[in-house]
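Q: How do we represent a protein-ligand complex in a form that can be generated token by token?
A: Start from the inputs.
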Amino acid sequence: MFPKYDVIVVGAGHAGCEAAVAAANMGSKVMLVTMNMNTIAQMSCNPAMGGVAKGQIVREVDALGGYSGIVTDHTMIQFRMLNLSKGPAMWSPRAQSDRMLFAGKWRKMLEENTNIDFWQEMVTGLVVKDGRVCGVSTGMGIEIESKSVVLTNGTFLNGLIHIGEKQFGGGRAGERAATGITEQLVELGFEAGRMKTGTPPRVDGRSLDWDKMEVQPGDEEPGKFSYTDTPRLTKQRPCHIAYTSQAVHDVLKTGFDKSPMFNGRIRGIGPRYCPSIEDKIERFSERTSHQLFVEPEGWDTCEIYVNGFSSSLPEDVQYKALRKIVGFENAKMFRPGYAIEYDFFQPTQLKVSLETRLIKNLFFAGQINGTTGYEEAACQGLMAGVNAHLAVREEEPFVLKRSEAYIGVLIDDLINKGTKEPYRMFTSRAEYRILLRQDNADLRLTPLAKALGMNHMDERMEKVNTKVAQQKELISFFKKLSADPAEVNPFLETVGSKPLSQKVKMNMVILRPNVGIKALREHAPALNEFLNNYDEEVISLAETTLKYEGYIRKEEEMVEKMNRLEEVKLKEDLNYNGLVSLSLEAREKLTQLQPRTIGQASRISGVSPSDISVLLVHMGR
Ligand SMILES: Cc1cc2nc3c(=O)[nH]c(=O)nc-3n(C[C@H](O)[C@H](O)[C@H](O)COP(=O)(O)OP(=O)(O)OC[C@H]3O[C@@H](n4cnc5c(N)ncnc54)[C@H](O)[C@@H]3O)c2cc1C
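Then emit the structure tokens for the protein with flavin-adenine dinucleotide bound:
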């Protein structure tokens, strides 16, 4: 019934969708097997993409030819650039999407790709021969052959849902848990663990008193995620802000004895940075109020997501507590919040390509690797899809360095350090933040994707070339144009900047703190006239490049130093146990993780600088 595929992707969540399109756009014949075709690209929790550090990842996925940014642009109902009051390294795009449109657009884009076939069924096992994966087997007993497999099972592996004292199997509310895969992988020698996450109740927007809440509108000039010609928002739906109170907390506390979090029924480790409301009350007992974001789930639905109120308390306790929130006095609940426990696999069992060490051509991506978040899943999917394609062709894997992308940071962290709790991206995890900005992901990564041979990168590459050329034109213009004191001094005074006593070059004015090009151009006609020929995005990029030139150079120098270590390759069969000068822990970890380079070895926890010296001496350096 089925041909032999190059790549089978198991699961059509954020990781699976990106994996399928990446492999297909590289030229592989792909089969996407998923339990339910109606839930392709379902947003399990909040219908929002991006946010701090996560927004940068979506931009990177887009720059590498992935679709998450395009889908978000087509389906968002609100856009905000977060952290604009901080430096540009921290600017992070975030969008609220229409949940149903998001899933629909993803499915359409997948269906448009003739290299992708679909099959709706639960995969219950892998076909493995001589240490190599050769396909998958399904619940109906069908075997589908392939040269590689990417597992992206998300929260579905032996998923167990908790609401108060009730617990039942499920991968998400209303969907079955997936069985068979964990058991087989453990038998094959993999180490599995258990994690948990949770989601808040959804309420009926018609029952809320919106006038009692603060409005949180989108940006006046909404941006977007994709570097391609996706549409810009012309209208937006606002979000709102509400607060819990002592009265809300008191009601919630009445359910604590039935909370699976507190009575030991949930054993999986949850995301520390995304705690449930009961967790927040317990951990920060001195606080009498917590902020909630009241977010619409789409254009045409009254369903509302209560961000910040994640809970696995009994549904009646959730309901009563919600009604104590100002503005929620008459709230009706559509769906209760719940917690879910699921299996994951320590990512230290993966190579840098996301291929497993134990089984050749078997790749893992997304929540199965102990991460949390759509963005973290999407980028791993893309990388696993590309590398599955390359593995089939016996080509070198595609690897991003920590200095090239947040994606590089994420994968490097996972495979070298593993994770004890659901891993999410933060800007603080990256050491080269000023290089890894959301505004330059295309300059950093599109040339790499083009060189890989993805089949839809020509137009993107043209855009990058234009952007680079325009950025140069702008910077050299700023360096040539003189600022006239009579024109710009009134503006400089308003921002507390010393007036000019004589003409100086415009780049020197732009370098001053508090002076932004956007405001400056209104007072400098020649500058304004020139800038009118350019897109806002490239003007902002030129401004950042100019203003942060010193920091950028410093980070580039650090990268260069680190790259020297990244270039020192370690032999795959190096006998670390034979190097007695290495600490015992280093010998163990290096043998287990088999780093590719000295740089990678230096980031493994338990490998000290003196161990690195031993390795360098051993290599004659
Ligand atoms: C209740 C809940 C709350 C969450 N809360 C948050 C949050 O607050 N913040 C946050 O960042 N993230 C949260 N997440 C996590 C977020 O949803 C995931 O990180 C993200 O969806 C992971 O993407 P994925 O592609 O790895 O897996 P998923 O999106 O889970 O997709 C898995 C896909 O695989 C399919 N599948 C699974 N097993 C099989 C099989 N054996 N055969 C065929 N198909 C299979 C499923 O049908 C599904 O399509 C939450 C998730 C849940 C369920």
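DSSP finds 21 helices and 22 strands in the chain. Residues 10-16, 33-36, 39, 44-45, 122-123, 152-156, 171-172, 178, 181, 197-199, 274, 340, 366-367, 372-374, 377 surround flavin-adenine dinucleotide (CB under 6 Å).
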